[in-house]
Amino acid sequence: MTTLGENRRVPQVQIRVLRDDYCEFVLSDTDPSVANALRRIMLVEVPTIAIDLVEIEENTTVLNDEFIAHRLGLIPLVSNAVYNMKGVFEDAGEEDFMDVEMSLNVKCTSEDTMDVTSNDLTLDVKHPEVHPVGYKQGDFDALKRPILLVKMRKNQELRLRAVARKGIGKDHAKWIPVATVSFQYMPEISINRALMDTLTEQEKEDWVDATPSKGVFRYNNITKQVEVDNAELYQYDGEALAKSEELGKPGLVTIKERQDIFIFRVESTGVLKAEDVVLTALEVLMRKLRNLQEALPQQDVGAT
Amino acid sequence: MTAPSWPGNLPNGKGTFENGVHEALLGDPSKLTHPIKDVADKYELLPAFLKVRGLVKQHIDSFNYFINQEIKKIVRAKGNEKVTCDTDPNFYFKYTDIFVGQPQVEEDYITRGITPQACRLRDMTYAAPISVDVEYTRGKEIVVRKGKNGVGAVVIGRMPLMLRSDRCVLKGKSEAQLAKLGECPLDPGGYFVVKGAEKVILIQEQLSKNRIIIDVDSKGQVTASVTSSTHERKSKTNIVLGRKGQLCLRHNAFTEDVNMAAVLRAMGVESDQEILALVGSEPALATLLAPTLQEAKSMGLFIRQQALEYLGSRIKAGKQQYSSRRSRSKVDEARDILANVVVCHIPVLQYDFHQKVIYMAVMMRRMLAAMIDPTLIDDRDYYGNKRLELAGGLLALLFEDLFKRMNNELKRTADNTLSKANRAGQFDAAKNLHVEMISQGMESAISSGNWTIRRFRMERKGVTQVLSRLSFIAALGMMTRITSQFEKTRKVSGPRALQPSQWGMLCPADTPEGESCGLVKNLALMTHVTTDEEEAPLARLAYLLGTQPASLVSGFEHSSRGVAMVFLNGSILGIHRRPKRLVKEFRRLRRAGRVGEFVSIFLQQDSVYIASDGGRVCRPLIICDRGVPRVTSAHTAKLKRGEWGFSDFLRNGLVEYLDVNEENNALIALYERNCGVATTHLEIEPFTVLGVVAGLIPYPHHNQSPRNTYQCAMGKQAMGNIAYNQLNVMDTLLYLLVYPQRPLLTTKTIELVGFDKLGAGQNATVAVMSYSGYDIEDAIIMNRSSLDRGFGRCIVLRKYGTVLKKHQNRLQDTVVAAPLPAGQSKPTGRHKLLDEDGIAAPGEVASPGEILINKQVPMSTKDPMPHCMTTLPPSAYKPAPVSWKGPPGESCIVDKVLLTNNDDGHIVIKTLMRHTRRPEVGDKFSSRHGQKGVVGSIVAQEDMPFSERGICPDLIMNPHGFPSRMTVGKMLELIGSKAAVSCGRFHYGTAFGEGSGLADNVDSISKTLVEHGFSYSGKDQLTSGSSGEPLEALIFMGPVYYQKLKHMVLDKMHARARGPRVVLTRQPTEGRSRDGGLRLGEMERDCLIGYGASMLLLERLMISSDQFQVHVCNHCGLLGYFDANLGCAVCPSLKSSDQMATLKLPYACKLLFQELQSMNIVPRLKLAEA
Question: Residue limits of the DNA-directed RNA polymerase RpoA/D/Rpb3-type domain (chain A) (predicted)?
Answer without folding.
Answer: 22-295
